[in-house]
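can u do me a favor
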């Protein structure tokens, strides 16, 4: 099984940033790996271990923000499709911006 954590935490004020970093550090110390920004996952052995992990997440969750936890099987996780597109850039890398004085 795999437990995935999705979160959207405020980080405008210094106290909010501190809480964000503390929660992120908690996830990393629990063995989660970052899949993408604010999405972390961890392999768990069974639903009991997943529930214990959920309780620890609840205890360490910041007061502000939005956190979602999803537990899926490895078979379901294997069906994730990764779609990677090009990052459009407006930077001109040729001599069209060259100005001769």
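np, heres the sequence
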């Amino acid at each position: 099984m795999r437990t995935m954590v999705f979160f959207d935490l405020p980080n405008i004020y210094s106290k909010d940033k501190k809480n964000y970093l503390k929660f992120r550090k908690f996830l990393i110390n629990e063995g989660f790996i970052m899949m993408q920004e604010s999405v972390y996952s961890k392999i768990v052995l069974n639903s009991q271990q997943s529930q214990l992990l959920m309780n620890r997440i609840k205890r360490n969750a910041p007061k502000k923000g939005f956190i979602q936890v999803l537990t899926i099987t490895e078979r379901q996780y294997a069906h994730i499709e990764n779609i990677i597109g090009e990052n459009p850039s407006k930077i001109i890398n040729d001599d069209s911006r060259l100005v001769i004085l």
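Residues 92 and 99 are 14 Å apart (CA to CA). hope that helps!!
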